[in-house]
Known about the structure:
The complex is a heterodimer.
Chain A: H1 3-7, H2 35-67, H3 83-112, E1 119-126, E2 129-133, E3 139-141, E4 146-148, E5 153-155, E6 163-165, E7 171-177, E8 182-186, E9 191-195, E10 201-205, E11 216-222, E12 235-239, H4 243-254, H5 262-272, E13 303-306, E14 313-315, H6 320-332, E15 337-339, H7 353-369
Parallel strand pairs in A: 1-7, 6-12
Antiparallel strand pairs in A: 1-2, 2-3, 4-5, 7-10, 8-9, 8-11, 11-12, 13-14, 13-15
Helix pairs in contact in A: 2-3, 5-7, 6-7
Chain B: H1 30-34, H2 39-67, H3 79-114, H4 123-145, H5 159-162, H6 167-194, H7 207-239, H8 252-286, H9 293-306, H10 322-350, H11 359-382, H12 384-390, H13 394-424, E1 426-427, H14 430-456, H15 471-501, E2 503-504, E3 543-546, E4 551-554, H16 558-562
Antiparallel strand pairs in B: 1-2, 3-4
Helix pairs in contact in B: 2-3, 2-4, 2-15, 3-4, 3-6, 3-7, 3-8, 3-13, 4-6, 6-7, 7-8, 7-9, 8-9, 8-10, 8-11, 8-13, 9-10, 10-11, 11-13, 11-14, 13-14, 14-15
Amino acid sequence: MFGLSAILPDFSSGFRLPLADWTTVGMPEAKSTIAHMVDSHIAFINIVCAFFFIAICIALTYIIIRFKKPAGEKAESDVSHNTPLEVTWTVIPMIIVVIMFCVGFYGYNRMIAAPADSYTINVQAQQWSWAFHYPDGTIASFDPGRYDAEKNERLVTDADQGLHLPPGVPIRLKMTSADVLHAFYIPQFRVKQDIVPGKISTLWFEPLVPEGDEPDEYWLMCAEYCGKDHSQMFSRVYVHPTLKSFEDWKIRATSWKDEQSWEQRGEILYRRKGCKQCHSVDGTRIIGPTWLGLWGKTAAEHPVAIGGKNGPVEGIAVAGDAGEAYIFESIRDPMSKIVVGYDAAMIPQKLSDEEILYLIEFMKSLGTKE
Amino acid sequence: MNAPETGTAAAPIVEAPPTPHHYLNHSKGFLSWALTLDHKRIGVMYLVGILGCFGLGGVFALLVRTELWSPGPTITSDPNMYNMWFTVHGAVMVFLVIIPGVPAALGNFVLPIMLGAKDVAFPKLNLGSFYLWVGGAIFFILTLLMGGVDSGWTFYTPYSAVTKTAVIPAVTGVFLLGFSSIFTGLNFIVTIHKLRPSGMTWFKMPLFLWSSYATAVIQVLATPVIGITLLLLIMERTLHVGIFTPAYGGDPVLFQHFFWFYSHPAVYIMILPAMGIVSELISVHSHKRPFGYKFIAFSSVAIAMFGFLVWGHHMFTSTQSPAMNAIFSAITFSVSIPSAIKVFNWLATMWGGSIRLTVPMLYGVSFIFLFSIGGLTGLHLGTLSTDIHFHDTYFVVAHFHYVMMGSALIGMFGGLHHWWPKLTGRMFDHTQGVIAWAFIFVGFNVTFFTQFILGSQGMPRRYYDYLPRFEIYHKISTIGSYLMAAGFLVMAYYLLHSIFAGKQAPSNPWGANSLEWHCTSPPPHDNFKSPPPIDDCYDYGGVDYDPRTGQYSSRADQPAASS
Lengths: 370, 563
């Protein structure tokens, strides 16, 4: 990265310090090729900190016990300074922090340079969901899981969604955001990168190959505050044990709709594409209007503001061909008609025409049920 | 230059009862406070306001901690509510409490007296600063009435430019508070330069003045940047100018640069005055001159200077270039050196002293302990390879609470207890003081040390809900916050009680020798009837203890007392 790196020793194999594991107590499992290196740096800093902290505590305690005196006693000493001593305790920390900087710098150099043979995945973040686009066109959406109060666990809802990764290959992520800042964070990999709207952020890591036959599973979390459901912006991450297992998943991921009706496909998309973050199907109000009973509403029941929240109000019947056209438009261009009483909060959704069709069928199924 | 606002100040100053004249009874009525130009009264008004806001910020902290007691909804089912709570907690504590805390409240009261001056250089500007602070506080209350703000105290774009909550009033409040801070800083710089008595050379100043001076320089130089940044944010929201928001052609990372260009130095605005207080506390309550006066003094200046050059270490994962990250990491380590020097020098100051574990001293010693943890964990965050994991997790939350609360606020409360007898003329109850301190000290560590573990394990910040594996740590942390709250309630009780029923405070309850302890408690309106003689403020040889009365007296004051 710097010209400086050229004249210094090559640490291309990683810059892992030979320090015992117990010195990084409290860290999550180290599951990427750089994680052990990072942990060894943390161990080094922990040891330095522990040394100084314990020394300060002992000194503080000893001094208080030895020099605690009844009121009115004069101090034993009136020494004002001792330059050699003060220079010593200025210089020693200086040397330590220079070493610490260098350790961190070398480690960081290794963490930022993605190997040339990396497998690239495009990560798209938006409030409050993730989507993963693979080089061959496979698209997976996030799987945020759901909290199960009985088991006190966050359970997976759809194991074919989420970020699936091949084993033994460096992964390079090209990340974009549709709205505000987000950050990609998997603690076990020791990687984190902000995703800035209007820019492409890059991140790479290589997960360790799972030891058993099952994929290793992790949580991907959003680490940069992004509004209401920041804390729900999880996705399940799967590292497959073999390339075959990864390819099998891809087939499952692309053929998910084969045996499903349009309506069922719509329901799956409703979960996967983040619709459910803002639209309920049970009548509760979240951010947008509920889909329960939406289909079949008459013009009188469904007033919308044209061209924005404060635009002229007009009733729109959600039925027949015109109703389908209205829903199609509202997904593609959400600002064109805003249901009265709601904020203009939706961003245009990246869905294919086909996918919107499935969603419409799903909405119809909800409407007729009422 | 600062004529008393009512009548003459010619009332004779006497040490003894029946009704000694002092600044509190100098004049009466609402306007005698509201329009006062007396730095002491302004300091007291600040103190009341700041402690009130501390209570407000504390309530929001408790709401946040209570919500995090268990995963999922606990006391509110609306994440927006939680987001509002942590934003208001952060913004109130930073902008209304800690930044003005030491300089504006305690500094205003003590600084001119320490210089033997009658007042600050610009008393009217000083009152103006106070009303700007009040204006800022009003805008914060307005923000709350408008439903709060949920952008986080950092106001990061583009979220702050698009959120529907009351960003503009909150930002306007911060803007006003910024000017309050600038004017206080300006006042202190001029006061220290121009009103320093002729005998008091720079290296004879109490160390609190060195740190106040260093702080004031940062306030004047850094604060305008946050002012203009927040104005741009308002323009972004209202006029869609396109500086920070990509939708209008702006760059969100630019906001982060602007924001931290102020807000990192602001960390030193918060911590340096507290370090100055601790230098005083350790010396006075060890009854020994500070060890390495010049190293401590220059380390304050060094921190102020380096503090301007490290803002990028908040942005290692922000898409800032790797080269910039490396440079900011390197400079960041340079700040750790003066901080380490201070800790070692405080310990050496205590060595060979005559230590009294008074309540202020307990806070002083706690500061050394807590600041060591806060400072050392900064190394994890300054190191590039390790910060990537810790960034934006509870590790950072724990680190800055150790520095902002465990150090800056603990230092402020140490100073509050140290100067309380001078401020109010009353002594607080020692035993109750120790009890409150113990609750706060233990509670603080239970709350925030746990968060280092949470952060190490990968718990991100600003989460309304969390993975169940973090639950036990969140529970411990919440219990700690309640212990702390109990401690602060006890403190509020005995401090208020002391005002009405506390023992009369002597001029010099701790056996100190800087100038504020040579005037009566509370000080008279004009502080000193004649310019006090300047001697070595850290020479405790001339301060005698009378075991019969349990009080200290300074030989230098004897002739004055007998007149």
